[in-house]
Specification:
Layout (H helix, E strand, L loop, with lengths): L1 H23 L3 H14 L2 H5 L7 H5 L1 H17 L3 E12 L2 E10 L4 E11 L2 E4 L2
Length: 128
Amino acid sequence: MKRNTSSIAAIAVFLLAILSCQLFSAKPSSTIKKFYRHVEAGELDDAMALLARSSAVATIGPAKVKAGLAEQTAAMKRKGGIASIDIQDEQINGETAVVKGSVKFNDGSSDSFEGGLIKEDGAWKIAK
């Protein structure tokens, strides 16, 4: 009986660990939202850390990407900052994902986006 109870407890702990990994792992949409918030705050290194190795950083270089992000920070400030980031669709297919949504700014304007993501080292990264 004691052995049976130990086995049941071990299985319960194992299932709980698997479930918690699935429940608490970051979703692709979370990566998109973090990216926009980092850009808005001017935290460009943090924003760039969310970009995949195969992204624009690899093709045009980190300096140009950082300069482009700085321009986006300034544009967001001119629009009064981000009011909300709304996700309309999130499609996950194994190690890739596509997230569609819109960013609403405090001046009433909005921009739509479609972000392609890939999983790198267990984390979602923006590929395009």
